[in-house]
ubiquitinyl hydrolase 1
Amino acid sequence: QEHPTKLAIGISGGFDFPQDMYTVTEHWSLVRLPQGDSCDIPNPEPGLAQDDISHLRFLELPNRLAMSIALIQRAESALLAEERASAVKAWEDDNICLISSYAMNLVQIDNSVRIPPSGWKCARCDLRDNLWMNLTDGTILCGRKFWDGSGGNNHAVEHYEKTKYPLAVKLGTITPKGGEVYSYPEDSMVTDPKLAEHLAHFGIDIMLMQKTEKTMAELEVDANERLGEWLTLQNLI
């Protein structure tokens, strides 16, 4: 099974529907109107061409009618396709990172802090992953603890609560295209149009950075996978 990369269900890159937890039975009938007489139509064999009508031969239907039936049987429901597309768009719209209201006029302290391109560590504990650099003072601290006990020790959010410095970038997600930025007062992942400038203030050249850690979206996907595996195990116990 392909590893999910999106927090969505039933789409490319998302989670698969749990096919082994239910069965779907289809029943097809051909009805002639206005007479109302009908006959049962068998389901098409999986894996055959869209226009294959071998399962309809015994009905001795006109070829064009048999072809139409076969295409309808194998076609995805237009309503289902529309609902799925709408759900995906709604999910993606909900997860768009808007420009932070703090980004354009962010105050950065001139404290001579210089951040190396790698080898980071939380300033308050020994964690070396899930690290966030505050874009105001350059302090590197670990992120929040996740529901399953993984993650960090909440030192980055505690730093915000003490200083009210609003924006932090997740180290390890920075590339020449950008990086993950979180706004504490806005309580959301955000876009920082001046991220390259804000990083340069602390000696980081964004053009030289490479992704070394999973993004928050990727971590959420992993967490949902683990939760799904746990629920599956509970059903087996």
Notes: Residues 216-236 form the longest helix (21 residues). The beta strands are 28-31, 38-41, 131-134, 140-142, 167-170, 181-183, 188-190.
